[in-house]
Design goal:
The protein is an alpha+beta fold and about 140 residues long. It has one domain: ph1033 like domains (ph1033 like fold, Roll), CATH 3.10.590. Helices cover about 25% and strands about 35% of the residues. It has a 6-stranded mixed β-sheet. β3 and β4 form a beta hairpin. The longest helix has 11 residues. The radius of gyration is 14 Å and the shape is globular.
Length: about 140
């Protein structure tokens, strides 16, 4: 299993909307590095749902329920892909960007190092650490 962090601007698509929709196609990614990360996702992988711009915090966990397929929101012939994400659970305590950046244990997290990347990998160690900060006990390695 791999772990990821996906970003969404809550005024465009929020955690509450993800929960309401249960399964949602993750469309609109227009960055080649983020696209490669979407293509690397496999069924059952977990991702942190991160509110960007407004809130700037990890607010929930989603699961990949459909692997990469052509993004229906892309222009015909464009190389963009989507994956389908299913809401798993909210974070008991959202973890904010300021706390993440202030924590030396998270200095090499993609969210910190590649701050503009909308879909990034999360190591198992970082996943477990962030779950601990959030008080989240589901979907952890240890």
């Amino acid at each position: 299993m791999a772990y990821w962090l996906i970003k969404s601007e809550p005024d465009a698509f929020s955690w509450d909307q993800q929960v309401e929709n249960v399964v949602e196609p993750w469309t609109g990614v227009r960055n080649h590095s983020a696209k490669l990360n979407l293509q690397a996702m496999r069924l059952g992988d977990l991702a942190f749902f991160y509110h960007s711009n407004i809130g700037r915090e990890i607010v929930g966990v989603v699961e990949v329920v459909r692997e990469a397929y052509p993004d229906p929101s892309a222009e015909p012939g464009q190389p963009w892909v989507s994956v389908d994400m299913k809401a798993v659970a909210p974070m008991p305590r959202p973890v904010g960007l300021a706390a993440i950046k202030a924590d030396p244990a998270l200095a090499d997290l993609a969210l910190v190092k590649l701050s503009r990347l909308s879909v990034g990998p999360v190591s198992a160690a970082h996943w477990n650490y962030l779950c601990g900060l959030a008080g989240y006990t589901g979907g952890r390695d240890g």
